[in-house]
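Schema walk-through. Below, the input block comes first and the output block second. Nothing else is stored per chain. Lengths vary across the set, and this one has 279 residues.
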Amino acid sequence: MGEIKLIAFDLDDTILNTKKKLSPETLRVLYRAAELGIEIVPSTGRFRGAVTDEIKNLPFVRYAVTLNGAAIFDVKSQKTIARFEIPSERAETMARVFDELPVIYDSIIDGQGYMNREFHERVKDITIGEWQYKIIYGLRKPVENLHEIINQSSGVQKMQIYTKDRDLRANLLAALPVVFPNSLFTSSVPNNIEINDLKANKGDGLRFVASHIGIEMSESMAFGDGLNDISMIKAAGIGVAMGNAVREVKDVADHVTGTCDEDGVAEGIKTFCVGIDDK
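--- output ---
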């Protein structure tokens, strides 16, 4: 393990607590880490427009891994510097399969979320909290025919399936990768399945950013709680699972920290980064 020069973290239930807030202590530690020259890299399944203002407004963030690695964003230039998308033909085939399931689904194309109008009207039925309802209902454009939008696109950055049926979700997470082996199926919350191209994952997103700025992976650290964080936890020099992480994340992590409501990210940074509290 080398000196930590890059810290990546998931947002929901990792850097953000269960109230979807950044605590004063975690904010203090992030500022201190940035002051010491450590790159701070949000890594999220959300698209850029859905990232909370608290994270967007951090002045020291230069790069962000969004959409699980489908889009790497340069905050300074306001440009996407890397894209890894599901080909539109494959996304359309998946959408036809999803039509036959008792679920609702959406697609993210060029940073814009789309959802069939009939699904958009049912969002309240499948969300697990007001925060999720606001994100999905407010940031998905209702359309009459999502298939047309997909077909007219050059590629789809991400698709999501939503269901409150946990058995169905577990069965789909097992079955869909067999049907679509060129796509990656993960999850970040108990009622969703996130679909990306195999090249779009947080681990490869972290590798891209580290290589782009000349940092060795052994000098990186990553925090996460959900299935879509596993590739990043495994790729980082130090992979840290939150205390509230699912078992699969804890199983591959090098360290388990406190929960998102216990400033677990701040605790982990202070544990592994020299000089955080040397003032």
